[in-house]
Amino acid sequence: MTATVVDLKCPACGHLVGNEEYERVVANFDRFVEEKMNGQIEQLRYERDMKDELLQQMKKKFQDREEQYERNTEKKANEMATSKIREMDIRHRDELSEKDRQSRINQQDEIERVVSGKDRQFNLERAGYHTQIQRYQTQVEEQKRTIDNIPSELRGTRGEIALLDDLHNAFPDDELVPKIVGVEMADIIQTVVENREKIAPPIVWDRKTSDKVTPSDICKAKQYKTTHNTDYSIIVTQDITMKDSNNRMFGERDGIKLVHPTAVVDMARIFRSVIIDKAKQTSSNKDRTSKEAKLYEYLKSSEYARAVEWERKATMSLDDLQRKEVDYHETTWKNRKKLVDELRKIGEQKQQKINDIMRSETGEDSKDDSNKKEEE
Length: 376
Description:
alpha/beta, disordered N terminus, 3 domains
């Protein structure tokens, strides 16, 4: 029986070793390989847990971004999400590159097999991450399209509610009608109520939340004047330039009043005073018109006609009496004059008779005196 001698070499250094020493070295090497593999596996599990945690963080961040989209920051959130995706993709690429570099350093087949298996698992997880990211990105795009498709009359609801609250707190008795969805009208219609009576015309407010007031907004405000039959069509906006006003609080553009949101109540007080004063003047004119109408009705009534007829008859009777009185007085004056003339004539005759008598007596006396002298 022939014994076969097998040369055993150390797998680490390559020197010839005995059977026991070879087995010990092989056991140590297997243990080293196993520890190395376990360490790699633990490292990969740790990295997988870190990526799960990162995924959870990303989910939370995406939820935060969705809330930001609801606050009209879709563009910024989309850019941030894209940036995060790009950073994550770069990070994943760097990690894969590092794993590939580490796998090339270790030439052992077993380590390469384990690493390649973990790489496949990681690639699957990475593909799952990308799938989730794409799903979130699709949801973001859908939300963005939904927001873009919202009608313009439904936007700026928060600003309209704030404007409505300010006007209601300042003028609790006024009638405030908010915009009705689907109806071409201003955002808020304010009707002045004074002593429980509504006073026309109303004040219409158009709240703009955009950065600029466009010519289209001006045209709509002018159209609201016709729609609501008023001259008080006001745009509430922060876009008041130095061309519109010197104080950036009140302004006018193409015949439309502009007011800053913080000055709405002050402008409303001014317009309310003007409307109330005009209403008082109109009421006075109406009273005057009412009096004229009543006077006209009286003038054409039968009562007035009877009064005029009685006045006419009374005037004619008075004229007859006046004429008769004049005739009587003329007759009386004539008779009186005749009598006066007769009395004067009689008085003259009497005087003449007396004068004649006096003259005759004076002549006889002088004749007697002359006769006496002759006799002597």
